[in-house]
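Q: Give me a backbone?
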Amino acid sequence: MQFYKYQGAGNDFIMVDQRQSRTLNRKATKQIAFLCDRHFGIGADGLILLQQHANLDFEMVYFNSDGRESTMCGNGGRCIAAFAKHLGIQAGEAGYRFMAIDGEHRALLPHSIGPGGEWVELHMSDVGQIEMVDNLPAEQPNLSPGLITGPDYVLNTGSPHFIRFVPELDALNLVQEGRGIRYSERFRQEGINVNFVCENNGRLLIRTYERGVEDETLACGTGVTAAAIAWFRRSGQAAGRADIPVSAKGGGLAVRFTAHQDGSFTDIWLCGPAQSVFQGEIIFNEN
């Protein structure tokens, strides 16, 4: 099977072009988990299939590294747009239009950023509701309640996210803290991505524990988007346009949106780099 490897702010993905023939399908959980394994396979946070769509430029089918199809992946959406350009798929005047699990998305590629790299701006789903949670406790006694600095936030930006604001990030045992919330009684069954966020000199810093990966990732696009929106709500700013820089462990991203007086957010764009890493062929058991 021919594959391509891409990364967006350190969030890395295996890309497979399935427009002409289909090697993998939505039930290939074992095979996809093998391909994402960093010791025995190619290694990645997730795998993305680019497939034909009847009315749009292509379809994006995303799987977490555990091999299971998952909800929307923001950095994956940016990377598949860069991949589409590499494949020679022509974008319209409004950019690429593609279908993902949460509906139609649009991607703009205003300029390249060196060999194999593109700056990609991805239009995300609207956000209508943000739940404020009064310091949800994790079910592990050795977590760090002293790091909590106010209410937590739960919202869906194409994938479900839990946002906790903390005074600093370096002291966090991210996997332990994130896992405690992800497997708490409320979220255990469906899972949730857990983000810890702090503000530093006008920029948000973020670390994320991702469900499906069940570990920290260097970046999470829908998590960065959720963090920017939650911070805007938390800071009490007036409705209007906002452009918020966010630094993940894997690099810098930016989120822009329109905030409305009714508490909703529209015209949300996740912006940042998408980089081709390498391509190759792998032999594996397709059954």
The chain has a mean pLDDT of 93. The CA atoms of residues 135 and 150 lie 7 Å apart. The first strand starts at residue 2 and ends at 8.
